[in-house]
């Protein structure tokens, strides 16, 4: 019996084991990479697996990485590369069909994110953040020693990060500058439009829009909101209690029950939602889903 088979018996023997989608990264035309994790309740035995999928069809799924560690974040700067963050401080890079790892941060990291092939950032605890530059990572100057959970921007001059205690920061040169906005709740997700409008999602129904540093509160349920994203001209928010909401004026309306809306990403044709154990894809009209399965031999995707 292989170690993997033995470990899977241990995982599936735990009545509280989990199998969840962690992140979806658009990865070329009608292609995406999906990160799933399966493990015991205490994560003492766990596996992470990355699939490359075409057309969101499980029959096309190709397993490109499997490791007995917990990966928490995935991003793609271009159709040839992926970055994955292992819980803690290790970053994995997929290029030319193989994976390499680097460990350089001194604090726990929370998210790896790419705008395009020219910008990949890593953010985490104590305000620490790093930028991928050629074959190395360079540190960015922190504004405050607060946990950063998410980062987004359509171009470098509009990149913002968010985190604990209502932190919203703008990337300026090789460091961060805080926005002076009166938010106390922790923030989990951010999205910035090409026009510079910043939206941030957080605890206790905190859903805000920042326009020219003026704060606008959006009416929302008193849930933890993890994510916000724009797709085909509409703005969508993800929370811990229902799933996906659509913004209408200054309030949120229930849109699709995905259970949770942990993360939202998109390419020009599709929006991808991480809903707990299920990966979702939305084309503007229809929803499709994929989830992790174990057939007794290996991990695979099913609808």
What order do the helices and strands come in, and which of them pair?
Blueprint: H1 3-12, E1 18-26, E2 31-39, E3 46-54, E4 62-67, E5 71-78, E6 81-86, E7 90-95, E8 98-103, E9 109-116, E10 119-124, E11 129-133, E12 136-140, E13 148-152, E14 160-163, E15 168-172, E16 175-178, E17 187-192, E18 198-202, E19 207-211, E20 214-217, E21 225-231, E22 234-239, E23 243-248, E24 251-257, E25 263-266, E26 271-275, E27 278-282, E28 287-294, E29 299-302
Antiparallel strand pairs: 1-2, 2-3, 3-4, 5-6, 6-7, 7-8, 9-10, 10-11, 11-12, 13-14, 14-15, 15-16, 17-18, 18-19, 19-20, 21-22, 22-23, 23-24, 25-26, 26-27, 27-28, 28-29
What does this structure look like?
The protein has a five-stranded antiparallel β-sheet, with no helix packed on it. A four-stranded antiparallel β-sheet has the order 1-2-3-4. The protein has one helix spanning 3-12; strands spanning 18-26, 31-39, 46-54, 62-67, 71-78, 81-86, 90-95, 98-103, 109-116, 119-124, 129-133, 136-140, 148-152, 160-163, 168-172, 175-178, 187-192, 198-202, 207-211, 214-217, 225-231, 234-239, 243-248, 251-257, 263-266, 271-275, 278-282, 287-294, 299-302. 3% of the residues lie in helices and 57% in strands. It is mainly β and 303 residues long. A hairpin with a 2-residue loop joins strand 5 (71-78) and strand 6 (81-86). The protein has two domains: 1-88 and 272-303, no CATH class; 104-266, 6 Propeller (Neuraminidase), CATH 2.120.10.80. It starts with a helix and ends with a strand.
């Amino acid at each position: 019996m292989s170690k993997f088979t033995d470990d899977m018996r241990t995982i599936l023997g735990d009545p509280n084991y989990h199998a969840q989608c962690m992140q979806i990264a658009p990865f070329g035309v009608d292609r995406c990479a999906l990160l799933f994790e399966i493990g015991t309740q205490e994560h003492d035995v766990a596996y992470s697996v990355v699939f490359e999928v075409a057309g969101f069809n499980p029959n096309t799924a190709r397993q490109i990485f499997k490791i007995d560690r917990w990966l928490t974040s995935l991003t793609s700067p271009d159709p040839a590369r992926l970055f994955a963050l292992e819980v803690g401080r290790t970053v994995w890079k997929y290029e030319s069909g193989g994976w390499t790892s680097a460990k350089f941060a001194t604090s726990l990291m929370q998210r790896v994110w790419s705008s395009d092939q020219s910008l990949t950032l890593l953010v985490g605890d104590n305000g620490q953040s790093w930028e991928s530059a050629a074959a190395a990572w360079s540190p960015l100057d922190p504004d405050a020693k607060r946990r950063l959970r998410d980062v987004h921007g359509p171009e470098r001059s509009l990149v913002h990060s968010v985190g604990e205690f209502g932190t919203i920061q703008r990337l300026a040169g090789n460091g961060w500058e805080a926005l002076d906005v009166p938010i106390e709740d922790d923030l989990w997700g951010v999205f910035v439009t090409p026009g510079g409008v910043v939206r941030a999602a957080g605890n206790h129904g905190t859903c805000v829009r920042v326009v020219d540093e003026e704060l606008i509160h959006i009416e929302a349920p008193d849930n933890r909101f993890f994510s916000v994203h724009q797709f085909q001209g509409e703005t969508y928010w993800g929370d811990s209690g229902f799933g996906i909401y659509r913004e209408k004026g200054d309030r949120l309306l229930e849109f699709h029950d995905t259970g949770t809306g942990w993360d939202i990403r998109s390419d020009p044709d599709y929006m991808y939602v991480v809903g707990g154990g299920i990966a979702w894809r939305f084309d503007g009209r229809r929803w499709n889903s994929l989830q992790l399965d174990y057939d007794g031999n290996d991990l695979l995707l099913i609808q």
